[in-house]
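This protein record is not my work; I was only asked to verify it. Would you go through it and say whether the fold makes sense for this chain? Here is the record exactly as it was handed to me.
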Amino acid sequence: MNARRLLHTGPDGGRWSLARAGAEVFVLHEPTGGGAPERIGLARFLDGDPGVPQRRALLDLVATLAEAALADGPANEPMTGAPPEAGAAAAEPSPGEAAV
């Protein structure tokens, strides 16, 4: 595992972490009592019960990272900081949509 950040420790001692192994990013659940750790994909994890504290902790972390990125520049700039490609054209209107 390349990196791990603790999100939440439950009352029973189970730990939930945001983790990365190579290009894979996931939530790692380490249950108490000797159970095997479980890797949970981000989409599956976020699709779960919205009221659990470990999900709230992940959303809070994402919000903190987004706020920090936006504090570095105006909100209308890409978070990557990359300028638009030179000569990039606007999108074509959809069929039935008037061009502006």
